[in-house]
């Protein structure tokens, strides 16, 4: 039985995971952390992470970037591995994640779905065919109107995947409104759309002369992320310090 602390337990993802784990004989949420204490989850909820004294094997995090520093300090101090799913982290926070991973196991992934993690692998091959042939690369993501960060963590991760395969040759461009010049070949444009209840859509476009190749992933419910997060939690419990990602879980 894997004992989970759910960080951000009263948010949208926290609630989906609470429902999923309730039906899982091999996992249990033993405590939740959330500044909003407005639900009866059937486990204790702490509004201040420092006050959480419940023994656990792993923390699953879907909260807010502002909460990540205290979360990392807690996981290092208590030596509890953390599945870090919150997006929109600053460069300083990303450096702190790396530093803390020398002391505790951290699995960081901007998207827990099997589809996106497979797409990341496929994009490396696609980029190595289309980039040398001069195709322009653009990413468009769409999310619900409650999302605070833009572009999505997934859009950045997809771009990073392409850029890694191409030796870092691309510069990301988020806004073309302030310049009057043609697109450079080494630009990778990333655009964000926000509206309604869109769960999450990501399109990667390779545009060449007279042909366009598009890779598209659509999440139809938050369950795809929740399932991946619970799988990741089971994988990470008991692992030694280090940086892990969903590729380690999926294999
Ligand atoms: N990696 C992935 O697959 C996915 C990542 N996400 C990311 O997860 C995060 C949360 O997403 P949602 O559940 O949709 O957001 P949400 O806003 O519905 O839930 C966030 C929860 O965190 C709580 N919270 C905020 N500040 C806090 C603090 N300082 N300490 C403790 N709790 C705090 C809020 O009260 C809220 O209940 C976002 O960054 C989102 O981008 C969302 C879906 C999938
Ligand atoms: O906020 C969301 O909802 C999501 N956030 C993640 C991101 O920023 O990439 C993952 C998913 O697309 C849903």
From TrEMBL:
Its annotated pathway reads:
Amino-acid biosynthesis; L-lysine biosynthesis via DAP pathway; (S)-tetrahydrodipicolinate from L-aspartate: step 4/4
Which InterPro entries does the record associate with it? Answer: DapB_C, DapB_N, DapB_N_CS, DHDPR_bac, NAD(P)-bd_dom_sf
**Keywords of this protein's UniProt record, alphabetized?**
Amino-acid biosynthesis, Cytoplasm, Diaminopimelate biosynthesis, Lysine biosynthesis, NAD, NADP, Oxidoreductase
Please state where this protein is localized: Cytoplasm
Q: Does the keyword Protease apply?
A: no
Q: Where does NAD(+) bind?
A: 8-13, 85-87, 109-112
* Single GO MF annotation: NADP binding
Name the Enzyme Commission number(s) assigned to this protein: 1.17.1.8
Self-association state and partner proteins as the record states: Homotetramer.
- Designated name of the protein: 4-hydroxy-tetrahydrodipicolinate reductase
């Amino acid at each position: 039985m894997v004992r989970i602390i759910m960080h951000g337990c009263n948010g949208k993802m926290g609630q989906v995971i609470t429902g999923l784990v309730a039906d899982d004989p091999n996992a249990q949420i033993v405590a939740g952390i959330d500044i909003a204490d407005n639900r009866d989850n059937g486990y204790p909820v702490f509004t201040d992470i420092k006050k959480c004294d419940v023994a656990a094997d792993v923390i699953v995090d879907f909260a807010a970037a502002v909460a990540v520093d205290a979360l990392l300090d807690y996981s290092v101090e208590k030596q509890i591995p953390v599945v870090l799913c919150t997006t929109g982290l600053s460069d300083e926070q990303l450096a702190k994640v790396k530093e803390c991973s020398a002391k505790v196991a951290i699995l960081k992934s901007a998207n827990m779905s099997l589809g996106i993690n497979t797409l990341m692998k496929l994009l490396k091959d696609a980029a190595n065919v289309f980039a040398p042939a001069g195709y322009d690369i653009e990413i468009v993501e769409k999310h619900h109107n409650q999302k605070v960060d833009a572009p999505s963590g997934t859009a950045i991760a997809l771009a990073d995947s392409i850029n890694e395969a191409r030796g870092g040759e691309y510069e990301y461009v988020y806004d073309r409104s302030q310049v009057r010049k043609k697109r450079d070949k080494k630009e990778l444009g990333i655009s964000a759309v926000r509206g309604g209840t869109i769960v999450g859509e990501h399109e990667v476009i390779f545009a060449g002369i007279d042909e366009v190749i598009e890779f598209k992933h659509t999440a139809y419910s938050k369950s795809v992320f929740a399932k991946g997060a619970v799988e990741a939690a089971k994988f990470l419990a008991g692992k030694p310090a280090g940086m892990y990602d969903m590729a380690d879980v999926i294999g």
